[in-house]
């Protein structure tokens, strides 16, 4: 029962407790689950398919499907893992339907590089440009990865999931997840190194080229 200050204390309930109340007909408990997980689910969808409007649609569909399937949730996995699985399946369905490769764009306020920039308002323009350039290079490299490797990296590096949680989500052995992460991160690292070498070569070339002096 809510106190005089409203439904605030419900936020201290676990996901599973809120699920139990939702199944029992308490709509506000499911709204609390939406408030708790809407941003992570949207971020996941955005990183996987890279399109803001479609990511919102996937996010909404995820909670709609979760609500309809809630009576069948047996608690064998965490609610969050169950929700992530629904979202990933919808992302895969979207990509098959559209027959498109993902466009790896990082939404404002979600990407760690952008968030770091927001916390350092006094940083130089040069540093900010360097951060944005690095983000663009990472996006480019992520788009080159197979879906399984890209998704594993997103879940591990951006959403902080354990290897076992990722294995459960992707329906594969733990060793396979580790292999996918190793191979995917190796590609990213190699791409970043090649980009840095190319950039240094351009800078070196610019310094060695003779500068024309304009005569007055």
What this model shows, in words?
This protein has helices at residues 15-23, 27-49, 52-69, 79-98, 112-118, 125-144, 147-158, 163-170, 174-208. It is mainly α. The chain has a domain at 12-103: Rna Polymerase Sigma Factor, Chain: A (Orthogonal Bundle), CATH 1.10.1740. The longest helix is centred in the last third of the chain and has 35 residues, at 174-208. The chain is elongated, with a radius of gyration of 22 Å. 24% of the residues are buried. The model is unreliable at 1-10 and 104-123 (pLDDT under 50).
Strand content: under 5%
The CATH homologous superfamily of the domain at 12-103: RNA polymerase sigma factor, region 2, helix turn helix motif
CATH architectural arrangement of the domain at 12-103? Orthogonal Bundle
How far apart lie the N and C ends?
85 Å
Derived structural class: mainly alpha
């Amino acid at each position: 029962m809510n106190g005089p200050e409203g439904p605030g204390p419900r936020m201290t309930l676990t996901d599973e407790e809120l699920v139990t109340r939702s199944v029992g007909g308490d709509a506000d408990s499911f709204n609390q689950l939406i408030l708790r997980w809407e941003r992570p689910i949207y971020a996941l969808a955005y990183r996987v398919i890279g399109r803001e409007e479609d990511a919102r649609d996937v996010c909404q569909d995820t909670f709609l499907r979760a609500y309809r399937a809630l009576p069948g949730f047996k608690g064998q996995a965490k609610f969050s893992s169950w929700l992530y699985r629904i979202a990933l399946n919808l992302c895969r369905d979207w990509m098959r339907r559209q027959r498109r490769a993902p466009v790896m764009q990082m939404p404002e306020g979600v990407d760690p590089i952008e968030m770091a920039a927001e916390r350092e308002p006094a940083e130089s323009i040069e540093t900010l440009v360097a951060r944005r350039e690095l983000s663009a290079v990472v996006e480019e490299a992520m788009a080159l990865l197979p879906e399984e490797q890209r998704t594993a990296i997103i879940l591990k590096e951006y959403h902080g999931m354990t290897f076992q949680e990722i294995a459960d989500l992707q329906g594969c052995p733990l060793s396979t997840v580790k292999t996918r992460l190793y191979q995917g991160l190796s590609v990213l690292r190699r791409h970043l190194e090649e980009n840095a070498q190319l950039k240094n070569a351009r800078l070196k070339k610019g310094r060695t080229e003779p500068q024309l002096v304009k005569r007055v």
